[in-house]
Amino acid sequence: MGASDDDAGFRPQHPVVAGLHRELPGLRICRSRAVTEALVPTVLEQKVAGKEARRSYTALVRRWGELAPGSCDLLLPPSPEQLRDLPYHAFHPLGVERRRADIVRRVATVARRLEETTSMPLDAAYRRLTAVPGVGTWSAAEVGLLALGDPDAVPVGDYGLPSLVTFALTGARRGDDTTMLELLEPYHGHRGRVIRLLVAGGVGPARRAPRAPLRSIATI
After folding, report:
1. pLDDT value for 208
2. Mutual orientation of helices 35-44 and 98-109 as an angle, nearest 10°?
3. pTM score over 0.85
4. 3-class DSSP state for residue 76?
């Protein structure tokens, strides 16, 4: 998963990043080579809270996944063929509206082409990923961090990530994509690694208000 990750040249100077790099020596940028498997749950995270997306993906796997080989009680994700052939309304009880359902089915339809990105240069891989309607730079970067082993992937467009990075590196509570990219520029080549360290280290401002209640698309 991360055995081929190489952090040579990564010498963080910021005390927060340097401290996390020392405290989390086992952190690796994954290269699972399972592009569709990474992209489907990423699509489900578009425009919704992470907890809501994870709930939908868990329901998807439980409904259409298959038992993994061996004696462990584990489920494999549904195959691309299964997802491709599902009507969009089959996703609704899982809390997934038509827009995301259609993107998942679109991804499943071209899954073979997407899996080829694991042997392509990263620039070409990202072009192929974002050629799928509904898969933008945010989704492609998430796949880059999970399946392609890209230590420089930055999920631009994330709701909370800019503020997390801004707080960790400056102490300011709010940040946007422009600020985040400026702060990460000294780490070019390892920007995704910095993000992984900050997220894994739990760095972020204290919450000042209760979380918004999760919506239930399945009941609409």
Report:
1. 63
2. 170
3. yes
4. strand
63: containing domain: 35-148
For 120, which DSSP code? S
Domain total of the chain: 2
Q: Are residues 114 and 196 in the same domain?
A: no
Are 101 and 172 in the same domain? no
Residue 93, φ and ψ in degrees, nearest 5: -65, -15
- Tell the burial category of 88 from Cβ atoms under 10 Å away from its Cβ (0-12, 13-18, 19+): middle
Question: Are 53 and 44 spatial neighbours (Cβ–Cβ below 8 Å)?
Answer: yes
**pLDDT by 10-residue block (mean), the chain, 220 residues:** 85 96 94 97 95 96 94 92 96 97 98 98 98 98 97 96 96 96 97 97 75 64
Two tokens at 179?
């600020």
